Amino acid sequence: MSERKKVKITATGRYVPPKVMTNKDLEKIVDTNDEWIRTRTGIQQRHVAEKGVGSSALGVEAARKALDKAAFDPKDIDFILVATGTPDYYSFPNTASIVQKELGVPPGVPAMDVSAACSGSVYALYTGHQLVASGDYKNVLVIGTEVMTSILNWDDRDTCVLFGDGAGAMLLQPAAEGEGEILGHHLGADGSGGDLLMVPGGGSRNPTSAETLEKKLHGITMQGTQVFKYAVKAMADSTLKVLKKCNLQAEDVKLIIPHQANDRIIEAVSRQLKLPREQFLSNIAKYGNTMAATTLIGLDEVIEQGRVEKGDLVLLVVFGAGFTTGASLIRL
Ligand code: ACO
User: Fold this and answer.
1) What mean pLDDT is predicted for residues 257-273?
2) Is the pTM of this model over 0.90?
3) Which of 107, 154, 206, 209 is most solvent-facing, going by the fewest CB within 10 Å?
4) Which of the listed residues 38, 220, 228 should we mutate to test ligand 1's pocket, taking the one with most ligand atoms within 8 A of CB?
5) Domains in the chain, please, with CATH?
6) In this prediction, what percent of the chain has a pLDDT beyond 70?
7) Does the active-site annotation cover 118?
8) Can 47 be counted among the known catalytic residues?
């Protein structure tokens, strides 16, 4: 068996579609208002993909940006992982295979979707880490991409105001001595919360029919208050678990990049962990909740802004439908 390799994030990228929908725009189509959305969630606007644009297209754009930064040819990618809860097609072909073709990654290279709702980014990062650490693969592309607006019920103000479209990407490669490295992860799931946050229609239990369409079962349904409470506990727990696993303290971490579901959830996690609010990224005002993309978009943004630098410790922590949860600790 070959020796386990250290793994680094060589480059990151992000892409959001150009069209912006503000809270004021939403006021025109659903019974809501800018003040409610801002004060209850922190969201001011979200980006919206044009009709007919699938998650693969956003993912390809984000991947191109990451690869350009590393001056890395897509032809040399040897594994593609795509975290998405809004694949181009239910249920095949998988979105990763579409990305392979559109990005110009050679046929024969494996391509796999990862389904863990908002936790998909960390689940995919974990998987990519193991692929490179094992020595089986050297240049793994990890993407989190969503067209959330394709699964919204625009009559349901409880949910349709919360989400947006976007994608983040990263290239994982073996790390040389002294380079940054992915230090560890914590992953978890608790299926008892499955009914609290779901898209009830369109799967094998409720195949698409006139009835599922009429009842609008193809949009997100959510028990917001219960989800909120679970999210705070799960993200605080996951943060502590990954720190313990890596034998590090929260104070060592330059920036925590939490899943962006609600600014008040981020606030509550920081209070629960007794950590300063400034140690947590919040960019939900601009993007809303882009599910599996939020933390990858966030990481790319803070690297670009110089808010984190080589050598800094960064912690991604997520929570999503399932319920699923996870955290990754990274030395940049
Ligand atoms: N505009 C105006 N009023 C609204 C809206 C809206 N968009 N939505 C709800 N309201 C009203 C409600 O009807 C209610 O009115 P009432 O008091 O007259 O009954 C009032 O506002 C308060 O509603 P609550 O649901 O109690 O509001 P709360 O403060 O709990 O916030 C929210 C709701 C934002 C949904 C919050 O519970 C939350 O963020 N939950 C978690 C969301 C989340 O994490 N989602 C996804 C995660 S992951 C994934 O995998 C997809």
Assistant:
1) 98
2) yes
3) 107
4) 228
5) 7-179 (3.40.47.10), 182-331 (3.40.47.10)
6) 100
7) yes
8) no
